[in-house]
TrEMBL record:
This is NAD(P)-dependent alcohol dehydrogenase. The keyword Disulfide bond does not apply. PANTHER family: SORBITOL DEHYDROGENASE. The lineage of its organism: Bacteria, Bacillati, Actinomycetota, Actinomycetes, Mycobacteriales. It holds the Pfam family ADH_N. It comes from the Bacteria. Residues 34-115 form the Alcohol dehydrogenase-like N-terminal domain. Its cofactor is Zn(2+). PROSITE patterns: ADH_ZINC. Belongs to the zinc-containing alcohol dehydrogenase family. GO terms for molecular function: oxidoreductase activity; zinc ion binding. Keywords: Metal-binding, Oxidoreductase, Zinc.
């Protein structure tokens, strides 16, 4: 999930990096959670160093931003909806998002330092 603020009309506001040095706030449709996913209503979001790199340089290492990208992956909020396979009792639960996808194979990951 990306950083969003939803309203009653089924839209959300998102900070979108459209090009190097340009961020615009856009209204976007609120996504529907797929199987084993949840929709988080964001309460707070941090500006990460990677967001700053994308803004200033349009890239981090080998990963370049080639199309508009919603910023804000360090967030907290409440589960607003759940997809198939997720316990409906989770709705309303407070969450903090851990956005990393560790490889779990390298020395750093094996030592618990995957970020």
């Amino acid at each position: 999930m990306n950083a969003v603020a939803a309203d009653a009309r089924g839209t959300m506001r998102a900070s979108v990096l459209t090009s190097v040095g340009t961020v615009v706030v856009e209204d976007r449709p609120v996504p529907t959670p797929g199987p084993h996913e949840v929709l988080v209503e964001v309460a707070a979001v941090g500006v990460c160093g990677s967001d700053v790199h994308y803004y200033r340089h349009g890239r981090i290492g080998d990963f370049g931003v080639n199309e508009p990208m919603i910023l804000g992956h360090e967030l907290s909020g409440r589960i607003a909806a759940v997809g198939e396979g997720v316990d409906p009792a989770r709705v309303g639960q407070r969450v903090a998002v851990e956005p990393q996808h560790p490889c779990r194979r390298c020395e750093q990951c094996k030592a618990g330092r995957y970020n």
